[in-house]
């Protein structure tokens, strides 16, 4: 079975506001928006959730949603990888 994962480099906005943007085309990797799930990080398991907020960054005629995972302690330039193995999620930060 092929490993499913989501990765990205953390922006200044993400680091300053303690979240990881989740691209819309990668939402299917995660449980439904607003549902809690467990994620493993550094040998600890914590509760997580994908949330969204409305945005008009493309202009008022193109309203849309941004999706994110709350996460504290991120630094600009961190490389984040979230791997899904069966029903388990593992987060790594480099």
Helix content: under 10%
What is the β-strand count? Answer: 7
Q: What would you call the quaternary organization? A: single chain
Q: What is the N-to-C succession of helices and strands?
A: EHEEEEEE
Q: In order across it, which strands form the biggest sheet? A: 1-6-7-3-4-5-2
Secondary structure tally, helices: 1
Overview features:
single chain; 94 residues; mainly beta
In short:
This protein has 1 helix and 7 strands. By secondary structure, the protein is mainly β.
Structural overview:
It is a single chain. The protein is mainly beta and 94 residues long. 6% of the residues lie in helices and 51% in strands. The chain contains 1 helix and 7 strands, in the order βαββββββ. It has one helix spanning 12-17, and strands at 4-9, 19-22, 36-41, 44-55, 64-70, 79-85, 88-93. The protein has a 7-stranded mixed β-sheet with strand order 1-6-7-3-4-5-2. A hairpin with an 8-residue loop joins strand 4 and strand 5 (64-70). The longest helix is centred in the N-terminal third of the chain and has 6 residues, at 12-17.
């Amino acid at each position: 079975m092929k490993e499913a994962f989501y990765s990205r480099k953390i922006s200044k906005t993400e680091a300053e506001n303690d979240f990881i943007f989740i691209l819309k085309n990668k939402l299917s990797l995660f449980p439904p928006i607003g549902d809690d799930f467990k994620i493993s990080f550094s040998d600890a398991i914590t509760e997580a959730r994908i949330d969204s907020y409305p945005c008009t960054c493309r202009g008022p005629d193109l309203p849309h949603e941004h999706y994110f995972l709350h996460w504290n302690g991120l630094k600009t330039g961190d490389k984040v990888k979230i791997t899904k193995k069966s029903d388990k999620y593992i987060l790594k930060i480099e």
